[in-house]
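dumping this here before i forget
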Amino acid sequence: MFVSALAGMTALAVPAAAQIATTRPAAPARSRPAAAQPQQQAPATPVQTATPAAPISSGSAPVGYVIGVDDVLEVDVLGQSDFKTRARVQSDGTITLPYLGAVQAKGETAITLVKKVQDLLKAGGYYAKPIVSVDIVTFVSNYVTVLGQVGTAGLQPVDRGYHVSEIIARAGGLKPDAADFVMLTRADGTNLKLDYKKLAQGGPEDDPTVAAGDKVFVPEVERFYIYGQVNAPGVYPIRADMTLRRAVAQGGGLGPAGSIKRIKVTRDGQEIKLKLDDPIKPGDTIVIGERLF
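structure:
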C-alpha cells in the first residue's frame, strides 16, 4: 500500500501524482534556518535501521492500519532522494528521520503520519511544500493469523474489529476439505469453536470480531469409513449431526445383500453397538454385513 498526500489534501482516494500542480518548479523549494546550515553542509544519508530477525511479509495493509512497534516504514519526500528512509518503529514508538530526528509513529496511520511529517518539515523550514509519502513495508504489530483449510493462510492485518467471517473471506474462503467449524484462539489463550454455517448466515452474536494477536484455524474435515454391503464404500466427511443412518446413506445405501441388522462399528479399536440414530465420531469404521437368506 502506498499513501501519498499533498498539503491541504481533501480526498484520500486521489493518487499523489494527480494532486501535483503541472506548473510546479522542477524541485520543491528548500529553505533552511541559519541554525540548520551546519547540518546542510554534511551530506545527508538515509537512516539505516536493523531489520527484525524474522521479518514478516506484509502484503497490503489496510488504509486505516494503526502503526505499532516493530512495523517497518518507508518515508519519502518527492524529489528529495536524500530524505528517503526505511526505518523500524522502535520500542518507544518512534522512527528516526533525517533533519527531524525521532518522530512518534506508534498509534498513527500512514495517512496521519504523512500529515505529521509534512507539518514538522514545514515548521522547521526544511522544505516549503513537501510532498510526503509513507509506505508500511512490513507489519508485525496488528494482525490476525489465519491457518488451516483456507485459500491463503497467513497474516491478515487488522485496522478495526473484523468479524471472523470477514477474515476468512479475506484469506480466500474455505477449501473443499475444510471442516464445518472454525477454531478462534484469542490472544489471552481462550478458545471458541464456531459453527461455519452460523458464521455465514447468523447474526453478529454468531460471528464474533477478532483483535490483533488472535488466531483463526480452519481444520480439515473429520472423516469416517464405511465398507461391506453398501453401494459406495469408502471414506466420507463427517458433517454436523451425522448419525449412523446418515452414514449408511452417505455410503450409497445398502447393497442387494446388505442387512441393517448386521452393522458393526469400530471406534478406537473397540467394537461398539450403535442404534441408527446414534451419532458417529471421527475415525469410526462401519462395516455392513450380509443378510441371512
